[in-house]
Amino acid sequence: MKFTCPCGYVYDEVMGDEENGIAPGTKFSDLPEDWTCPICGLGKDAFEQE
């Protein structure tokens, strides 16, 4: 699944975000509650599922 931030950043569960320490295959729901968008800093609650 993919989740999109209002700023345009897309978190793809298959790809993860290795650049920011998130392994491929990490589900969005498994990201820490204090995780924020690496681009704009918004929290998980700002993301929309695609």
List the helices and strands and how they pair.
Layout: E1 2-4, E2 10-12, E3 48-49
Antiparallel strand pairs: 1-2, 1-3
Quick summary:
The chain has 50 residues and is mostly beta strands. The protein has strands at residues 2-4, 10-12, 48-49.
Explain this structure to me?
- The chain is mainly β.
- Helix content is 0%, strand content 16%.
- The chain is built from no helices and three strands.
- It has a three-stranded antiparallel β-sheet with strand order 2-1-3, with no helix packed on it.
- Strand 1 and strand 2 form a beta hairpin.
State the helix count. 0
Structural class: mainly beta
Radius of gyration: 10 Å
Major β-sheet strand ordering: 2-1-3
Helix and strand element order: EEE
Helix content: under 10%
The overall average pLDDT, rounded, is 97
Keywords:
50 residues, mainly beta, 0% helix
